[in-house]
TrEMBL record:
It is found in: Membrane. It comes from Microbacterium testaceum (Aureobacterium testaceum). Signal peptide: none annotated. The keyword Cell inner membrane does not apply. GO terms for biological process: dolichol-linked oligosaccharide biosynthetic process; GPI anchor biosynthetic process; polysaccharide biosynthetic process; protein O-linked glycosylation via mannose. Its main location: membrane. Pfam families: Glycos_transf_2, GtrA_DPMS_TM. It is a multi-pass membrane protein. This is Glycosyl transferase family 2. The lineage of its organism: Bacteria, Bacillati, Actinomycetota, Actinomycetes, Micrococcales.
Length: 354
């Protein structure tokens, strides 16, 4: 097998036949297989089976009933299952023209790269297929931010957010990849210094169906970026910090509406506690939920911890001020820092324990 083409799909039925046809036409004379890693909730698996039966290249289907890690998780699963060490990752909606696979392969055969990226942002490439100006701006801005955060590792990559690339599986440590959300190439490039080469391509409009990009994918991306760069602890801190600001804003807003300040504080705290917990669930510890039991048990643990922490901090401040003669602001700040570290450790090791 010269090449395995891995295609993550979520409800892409109408695109499957066209994708297989064009892939096979573009790679005549090569031993190539297509692996669909499918999380669909519609009849896409049936469509794939039907296309596989009459295709002139091997077409495999991995349907996941338990789609861990979304798009990124699907790609990792495909890479694991690939027959060939050379893996191309490509979207299932034909925004990535299968004809470009031949360019990726030719560039890979020069032998000096671990990853060959199909880029929208080098000469000869375009991003016209991004549906509107907002998405184009978001894509550009997040590319810049990402490159700024990994100046060395992404130095040779103009399009770390693309989902179209070729990777030599040998050059990866597949077990270390923590796929969250959409940006699997970023995950691959940020983990380890890779030798990157690029070929241009024109990002096409979708062939059929709808995009699965969303605001929540955007939030996942920001969390992924923070975690890759600064570790889980910073993502945790960021969520906590934003929560504290939100708490104050809500409290102030309620008071403006005439709510008494203690009542406002209680309401603001309840909202923040719940929002904070949800952010931990779906962003910071999203990859650990699967194995750590029931969400409601985690909530109880997290909630209890926050309550105990609030109560314990007060006497500790008192001890630091009256016994250790520390200024009260410093004492309060110290307890906050200590509480933050303990809270992180508690969540990582107890609340989200496997
Ligand atoms: N298996 C699986 N599971 N596949 C998924 C999932 C999922 O949860 N979510 C989306 N996909 C598949 C889609 O079916 C499609 O084949 C591909 O992943 C990309 O999804 P789109 O919905 O077409 O997203 P997009 O066009 O907004 O995003 C593309 O452009 C980005 C760059 O702007 C993707 O190529 C991204 O990878 C790329 O970063
Ligand atoms: Mn798409």
């Amino acid at each position: 097998m010269d090449l395995s083409v891995i295609v993550p799909t979520f409800n892409e039925g109408p695109n499957v036949a066209e994708l297989v046809r064009r892939t096979s036409d573009a790679l005549t004379g090569r031993a190539v297989e297509v692996i669909f890693v499918d999380d669909s909730t519609d009849d896409t698996p049936d469509v794939i089976r039907a296309v596989a039966a009459s295709a002139d290249i091997p077409v495999r289907l991995i349907h996941r009933d338990n789609p861990v890690g979304g798009l990124g998780g699907a790609v990792v699963e495909g890479i694991r299952a690939a027959e060939s060490n050379r893996c191309v990752v490509m979207d299932g909606d034909l925004q990535h023209p299968p004809e470009v696979i031949a360019d990726l392969l030719a560039r890979a055969e020069e032998g000096d790269a671990d990853v060959v990226v199909a880029s929208r942002y080098i000469a000869g490439g375009t991003s016209d297929g991004l549906a509107n100006a907002v998405r184009t701006a978001v894509s550009r801005a997040s590319t810049l931010l990402t490159k700024a955060m990994f100046p060395k590792k992404l130095h040779n990559c103009s399009d770390p957010m693309t989902g179209f690339f070729l990777v030599h599986r040998d050059s990866l440590e597949v077990e270390t990849l923590r796929p969250r959300g959409f940006k699997i190439l970023l995950e691959i490039l940020a983990r380890k210094q890779m030798r990157v080469a690029e070929v241009p391509f024109s990002f096409a409009p979708r062939f059929a169906g709808e995009s699965k990009a969303s605001f929540s994918q955007g939030m996942r991306f920001l969390t992924q970026l923070t975690m890759l760069r600064f570790g889980r602890m910073s993502a945790f801190a960021l969520v906590g910090g934003l929560g504290a600001v939100a708490n104050l804003l809500i409290m102030g807003g309620l008071q403006l509406l005439g709510v008494q300040y203690l009542v406002a504080a209680v309401i603001a705290s309840i909202i923040t506690i719940v929002a904070n917990f949800l952010a931990l669930e779906y962003l910071v510890f999203a990859d650990m939920r699967e194995e750590s039991g029931l969400m409601r048990h985690r909530f109880i643990k997290s909630f209890t911890f926050n309550g105990i922490e609030a109560i314990v901090r007060i006497p500790v401040i008192w001890v630091l001020v009256s016994q250790a003669h520390m200024p009260s602001v410093i004492a309060a700040a110290l307890t906050l820092i200590a509480a933050f570290v303990v809270r992180f450790v508690f969540h990582a090791l107890v609340v989200y324990a496997p």
